[in-house]
Structure formats: structure tokens, C-alpha cells
Design a protein that fits this description.
The protein is of the alpha+beta class. The chain has helices spanning 6-11, 17-30, 44-51, 62-68, 71-80, 99-105; strands at 37-40, 85-89, 106-112, 115-120. It has one domain (6-120): D-Maltodextrin-Binding Protein, domain 2 (3-Layer(aba) Sandwich), CATH 3.40.190. The chain has 6 helices and 4 strands. The longest helix has 14 residues, at 17-30.
Length: 122
């Protein structure tokens, strides 16, 4: 008995895998290698690796920010070094501090498997 689709196969790993591949494909096809992206939510380091894109700050996982920084300072760092895309997953912990940055500088361009993908306005 085989698996008949890529998504079904990916879903066998964990509940985020198929979504992460979808978001990573979007990023790889919609940005340049030097473009920075910021992913907010569980399993975010995987998206950076799959898309071959790096974050604008040194923290790649939400728990890094909670452990070594704080949301207010993270939002300031993102405002100073705006990434080309910001991805917020449905499972992400609340990050109210980023709302003003999104409203003023970004537009929602996709909702891929419950991950909002915001693009920087030029």
C-alpha cells in the first residue's frame, strides 16, 4: 500500500511538514537568495532551511526570542531591518508588537495552509 500524494507523504512526518514545504516553495519562487524573511511560529527554522532564506535578526525560532530577547525588542529589530517577507503561522503565539509594522509596511499576499505570508511594500 503506497502513499498517493506528496502532501499525504509529508503529513506523515508531523502536522507542520506539508505547510512548511508549501511556504518554502512560495519563498523560493517569490524572492531572491539575498532577501531576508522572518517566520513567526513553531517549526520556523525548517522554513528557513527549506527556502534557503535567512532571517533579518539572529534568532530563528520563536523560543529563541522568548528566551533571549523579548517581543518589543524583536519588533524594533524587524522595523530597523525589514525582511522582504514575514510569515505568521496559525499556531504562532501572539506577537501584537509586530502588528503596526505589518499594517504600515506590508501587504498580505498569500495564506498557505494557515500561514499568512506578508510582503514588504516598495
Amino acid at each position: 500500500m503506497g502513499i498517493n500524494s506528496k502532501d499525504k507523504y509529508l503529513s506523515e512526518f508531523n502536522k507542520y511538514t506539508a505547510r512548511n514545504y508549501g511556504v518554502a516553495d512560495f519563498l523560493a519562487n517569490s524572492s531572491f537568495k539575498n532577501d531576508k524573511v522572518f517566520v513567526w511560529g513553531p517549526d520556523s527554522p525548517t522554513i528557513y532551511a527549506l527556502s534557503r532564506r535567512i532571517p533579518p535578526i539572529k534568532y530563528v525560532a520563536d523560543y529563541h526570542i522568548f528566551d533571549y530577547l523579548n517581543l518589543k525588542d524583536a519588533a524594533k529589530m524587524l522595523s530597523a531591518n525589514k525582511p522582504r517577507f514575514i510569515i505568521i503561522t496559525q499556531e504562532a503565539k501572539s506577537f501584537i508588537e509586530i502588528t503596526n509594522l505589518l499594517r504600515q509596511n506590508y501587504i498580505l499576499v498569500s495564506n498557505t495552509d494557515n500561514a499568512e505570508i506578508w510582503s514588504l511594500l516598495n
